[in-house]
């Protein structure tokens, strides 16, 4: 199980094995441990004007769908099991979709969030493509109206105070274990699953956004993650 | 899948996005479910300007709802309680739990199962 697809199968196959399959298997347990939106995500979503329509790409169990009920969000996830869990968050809606082939029209959404998702894409080109695909769906700004905004989050390489303890200089592509504890007395054993991650280094998320045709409006670091707010670059 | 969702999805195939025939996707063999949700008049009033009305009319007809008015209700019409209730019922309370969404351009069928539409493409369409 070597991290990074460079030497192995096609990236699609690699991600199928080392990301998608794992989330399908750990969906229930994963969801039970993910219930609180991160502060910057919450602030972004609460700052939207009522009636805004947007996307939550890689919505997981839908924890960010519960923040604002005055906007309408189409959540999507690659994992059907997670998308099903996310269905419960009204007035929003959930579908199964691939971040590189989103089922949405060009330039039609007021906002999007993509939280802890692009770091699962296993090549630099696919990470940029993922961001470009979301930016494609966001309304472009004009002389009279500002464009829509995308909030992206990715796991940071620089997190020396975290439980994992990685920092600058460590490998950026790695397999991260997820341990599903067996119920006490069930006679089952703990199970460990490995997910592929690309850890973002300082400045990398901004570079990916620029390459994807976006303009970085604001960016920063919050609790072991790099984040950025982007808007599609005006065409003229 | 709530009915309002159909207004904000299209075919996942890249080439279809430039074709007017790919929007809205067309429901087939749709099995509906009604779910009671609190009416939020402000939500309906605020979201409606983003709704593509012509597409919603097509969707509503395909799902067997009575024909919607030709023009989108706006202004004073959105103070009418019955109008708001009807829209609330159609957009948010009605879900398609089983069925298909079909692209009018390439003909690809997206399956809806247990309320979830699956937009993953087979490898030959990627």
UniProtKB/TrEMBL annotation, chain A:
Keywords: Methyltransferase, Transferase. The keyword rRNA-binding does not apply. GO terms for biological process: tRNA methylation; tRNA wobble uridine modification. It comes from the Eukaryota. Signal peptide: none annotated. Pfam families: Methyltransf_11. PANTHER family: ALKYLATED DNA REPAIR PROTEIN ALKB HOMOLOG 8. This is tRNA (Carboxymethyluridine(34)-5-O)-methyltransferase. The lineage of its organism: Eukaryota, Fungi, Dikarya, Ascomycota, Pezizomycotina.
From TrEMBL, chain B:
It is found in: Cytoplasm; Nucleus. Belongs to the TRM112 family. GO terms for cellular component: cytoplasm; nucleus. The keyword Membrane does not apply. GO terms for biological process: rRNA (guanine-N7)-methylation; tRNA methylation. One of its GO terms (molecular function) is methyltransferase activity. Coiled coil: none annotated. This is Multifunctional methyltransferase subunit trm112. Gene3D superfamilies: 2.20.25.10. Keywords: Cytoplasm, Methyltransferase, Nucleus, Transferase.
């Amino acid at each position: 199980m070597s991290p990074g697809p460079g030497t192995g199968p096609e990236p699609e196959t690699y991600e199928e094995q080392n990301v998608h399959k794992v989330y399908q298997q750990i969906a229930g347990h994963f969801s039970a441990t993910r219930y609180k939106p991160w502060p910057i995500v919450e602030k972004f979503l609460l700052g939207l004007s009522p009636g805004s329509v947007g996307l939550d790409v890689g919505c997981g169990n839908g924890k960010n769908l519960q923040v604002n009920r005055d906007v309408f969000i189409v959540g999507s996830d690659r994992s059907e099991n997670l998308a099903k869990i996310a269905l419960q968050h009204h007035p929003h809606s959930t579908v199964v979709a691939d971040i590189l082939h989103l089922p949405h029209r060009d330039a039609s959404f007021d906002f999007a969030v993509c939280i802890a998702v692009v770091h699962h894409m296993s090549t630099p080109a696919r990470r940029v493509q993922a961001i470009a695909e979301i930016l494609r769906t966001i309304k472009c700004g004009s002389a009279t109206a500002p464009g829509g905004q995308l909030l992206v989050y990715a796991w940071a390489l620089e997190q020396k105070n975290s439980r994992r303890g990685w920092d600058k200089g460590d490998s950026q592509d790695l397999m991260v274990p997820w341990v599903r504890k067996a119920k006490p007395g069930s006679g089952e054993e703990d199970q460990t699953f490995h997910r592929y991650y690309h850890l973002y280094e300082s400045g990398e998320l901004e570079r990916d956004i620029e390459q994807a045709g976006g303009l970085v409006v604001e960016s920063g670091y919050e609790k072991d993650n790099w984040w950025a707010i982007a808007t599609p670059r005006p065409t003229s | 899948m709530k009915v309002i969702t159909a207004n904000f999805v299209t075919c996942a195939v890249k080439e279809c996005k430039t074709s007017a025939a790919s929007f809205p996707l067309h429901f087939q063999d749709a099995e509906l479910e009604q779910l009671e949700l609190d009416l939020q008049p402000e939500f309906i009033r605020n979201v409606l300007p983003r709704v593509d009305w012509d597409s919603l009319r097509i969707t509503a007809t395909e799902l067997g709802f009575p024909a919607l008015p030709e023009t989108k209700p706006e202004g004073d019409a959105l103070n009418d309680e019955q109008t708001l209730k009807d829209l609330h019922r159609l957009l948010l309370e009605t879900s398609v739990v089983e069925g298909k969404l079909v692209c009018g351009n390439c003909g690809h069928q997206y399956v809806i199962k247990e309320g979830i539409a699956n937009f993953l493409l087979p490898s030959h369409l990627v």
